[in-house]
Amino acid sequence: YPTFWKKSPLRKNPHMNPVPAMLEPDPVLYKPEDLIVGEMIDVMGRNIFLYDCDAFTKEFYRQYMGIQQASIAIESPPLVHVKLRPPPHNGFGSEEDSLASCLRLTPRPPRRDIKKLIMDADKVMRFEAVMANASVDDVKRRFIAAIFLADDTVGMWELKYRNSGHSE
């Protein structure tokens, strides 16, 4: 368990010195007669409610102090399961890639359809394309758009032409 208060005397009047060697008030410590089930204690400015104690402590209080310690039932709140949804696709990679990064710390690549890869390995649909803007610089630019049926990816290439800046 994480430590909230280490094993040490617990003061009723906690005091922290802002400067070393400064005088501090006499400590007033909690004693067994102060720790009664159903009462609150102050631990460093936090109120702690005592609602139960173990069998040895109950027997100690009964024999040595004549106090019968009872138990107070504390209802725990019902557990609510919150269904987490994956975040929306951000446009980088495929949706399967984005989902894989949510499911694992080190994502695995999505499974490929091996039958489709084998059957459509040599099938490519090619299109010629031009820029759809009205810029004078883009009038002569020509592109090849290719759709690879094996893995449903798209490739784009610009065709070289004279004085385009591409090496020939």
Report on the structure:
The chain is built from three helices and five strands, in the order ββαααβββ. Helix content is 15%, strand content 17%. With 168 residues, the chain is an alpha+beta fold. The protein starts with 39 loop residues before the first strand and ends in a 10-residue tail after the last strand. The chain is elongated. The protein has helices spanning 55-65, 95-103, 114-119, and strands spanning 40-43, 46-49, 124-130, 142-148, 153-158. The model has no long low-confidence stretch (mean pLDDT 86). The strands form two sheets. A three-stranded antiparallel β-sheet has the order 3-4-5, with no helix packed on it. Strands 1-2 form a two-stranded antiparallel sheet.
What are the SSEs and their pairings?
Elements: E1 40-43, E2 46-49, H1 55-65, H2 95-103, H3 114-119, E3 124-130, E4 142-148, E5 153-158
Antiparallel strand pairs: 1-2, 3-4, 4-5
The best one-word shape is elongated
Low-pLDDT sequence parts:
none
**Rg calculated over all Cα atoms:** 37 Å
Strand order of the largest sheet: 3-4-5
Structural class: alpha+beta
Put simply, the count of helices is 3
Main beta sheet strand tally, sense and closure: 3 strands, antiparallel
Indicate the percent of residues in helices: 10-25%
**Helix and strand element order:** EEHHHEEE
N/C terminus separation:
71 Å
The percentage of residues in β strands lies in: 15-25%
The average pLDDT score comes to: 86
Number of strands: 5
